[in-house]
Automatic annotation (TrEMBL):
It comes from Guopingia tenuis. Transmembrane segments: none annotated. This is Helix-turn-helix transcriptional regulator. CDD domains: HTH_XRE. InterPro entries: Cro/C1-type_HTH (IPR001387), Lambda_DNA-bd_dom_sf (IPR010982). Residues 72-96 are annotated as: Disordered.
Amino acid sequence: MKLEDVLKERIEELLLKEGISVNALATRMGVNCTTIKNILYGKSCNPTIRTIFLLSSAFELTLSKFFETEEFENPELEAGERKPRRDRKDGELPKE
């Protein structure tokens, strides 16, 4: 299973447990709901540690508790392929 899928499932699990919407979570985190939706819909496969920290804090969990699930401890968990970033102005790939 891919890391981004496990993260998505963990967020969905916590949303159900808390009985809150994506919009309510975004408000708790102090971010735009697009940030969360991008993770849930697979558009953001590489959220920042800040975003993960805000997620765990919004659910009143430490980072270690957020990741304390069987799925995250699975030795066969794999990171998905990194998608190339595009320059936000013109859609071109950044020059290396």
